[in-house]
Write a sequence for this structure.
């Protein structure tokens, strides 16, 4: 029997490294995109209270009104952008927000441009929808990652319907400035494209003058064509709770809610209430978390820059470094070797699409001792791998 095109989606190379780590006890896990500290107590207490209040029945497809109002208020406070409840759709994870946005805007016979290196689930969601993903890598120069508008223009086809990207980006930490967003919005206007903007890491931004990364919705022309995908996973250490949301134009937001009915119906009510409290009361927690991430970022960048053959762009956001390793041709082979020989796990750059090969992703949202030991093991493994001639 013939399977549907979705069945051809390749398994995650990050998960493959995780599975290998399971076979090698003692492996330091710097490959997953999550903090190793647990969800804060004030959020867990909100979940207990929600259970006691019987928030265990079906919820509206777009989420509890109280949570949607809280999200809209926070977005207006952070970005100065008025957002109505009707434009907010709570989803069962940030990935679900991406999935629904893709389903609503592209389909078989269409194509979508994806700015890479990027979390591979973007490309996967587009392919599951039956569309073609066209990967356009960010440029990398001594100053770090940046947009390559010429390559973007060259990638547009008559059937292109969307531009998708993340800022701050996973794995690069690249963060679009407001001028970058203006450039991208003008590009989408020129070619009549939807803009899917993943802002999951927008609260993990290292600009001391702003508590949040810039949003495309800060540009008036962006609002009719932009869907913002968001999640509570990264900022509030809620990766397993599976609560996200989308902010979409008025003609799209109801469609996202209806589509969710045919996937998971809605996000879990208890987790929604925990998310509401996280957003409402989480600013002191976020300030402490970002200060910790900034220290770990600086530690990781400094440590890696002392290793021969390693170039490290400084990330402006998120909690990863994405070093380029001189001469590396097979990042999967290196990562497998690091697990087997050094008991340290990092994610292969090739997992993140065009422009990713030759890099590895290292998550620094771990305790400091684990990070330091992991970087020591990484250096030893990289030196041995390189000496063996396997990098070329």
């Amino acid at each position: 029997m013939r399977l549907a095109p979705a069945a051809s989606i390749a398994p995650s190379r990050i998960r493959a490294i995780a599975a290998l780590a399971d076979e090698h006890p003692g492996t330091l896990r710097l490959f997953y995109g999550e903090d190793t500290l647990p969800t804060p107590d004030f959020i867990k207490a909100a979940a207990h209270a929600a259970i006691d209040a019987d928030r265990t029945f079906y919820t509206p497809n777009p989420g509890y009104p109280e949570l949607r109002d809280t999200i809209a208020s926070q977005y207006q406070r952070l970005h100065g952008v008025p957002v109505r409840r009707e434009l907010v759709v709570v989803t069962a994870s940030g990935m679900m927000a991406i999935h629904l946005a893709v389903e609503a805007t592209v389909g078989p016979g269409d194509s979508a441009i994806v700015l890479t290196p990027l979390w591979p689930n973007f490309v996967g969601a587009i392919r599951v929808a039956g569309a073609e993903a066209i990967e356009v890598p960010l440029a990398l120069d001594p100053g770090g990652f940046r947009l390559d508008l010429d390559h973007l223009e060259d990638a547009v086809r008559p059937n292109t319907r969307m531009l998708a990207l993340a800022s701050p980006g996973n794995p690069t930490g690249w963060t679009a400035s407001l001028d970058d967003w203006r450039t991208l919005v003008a590009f989408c206007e020129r070619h009549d494209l939807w803009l899917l903007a993943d802002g999951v890491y927008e609260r993990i931004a290292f600009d001391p003058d702003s508590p949040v990364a810039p949003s495309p919705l800060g540009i008036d022309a962006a609002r009719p064509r932009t869907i913002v995908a968001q999640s509570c996973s990264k900022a509030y250490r809620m990766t397993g709770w599976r609560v996200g949301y989308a902010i979409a134009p008025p003609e799209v937001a109801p469609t996202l809610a209806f589509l969710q009915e045919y996937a998971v119906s809605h996000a879990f009510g208890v987790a929604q209430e925990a998310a509401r409290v996280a957003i409402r009361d989480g600013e002191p927690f976020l300030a402490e978390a970002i200060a910790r991430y900034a220290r770990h970022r600086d530690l990781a960048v400094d440590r890696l820059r002392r290793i021969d053959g390693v170039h490290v762009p400084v990330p402006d956001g998120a909690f990863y470094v994405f070093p380029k390793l001189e001469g590396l041709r097979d990042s999967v082979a290196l990562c497998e070797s690091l697990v087997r020989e050094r008991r340290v796990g990092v994610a292969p750059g090739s997992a993140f699409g065009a422009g990713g090969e030759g890099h590895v992703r290292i998550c620094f949202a771990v305790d400091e001792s684990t990070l330091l030991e992991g970087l020591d093991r990484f250096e030893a493994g990289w030196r041995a791998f390189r000496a063996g001639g396997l990098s070329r």
In short: The chain has two domains: 5-39+284-385, 41-280.
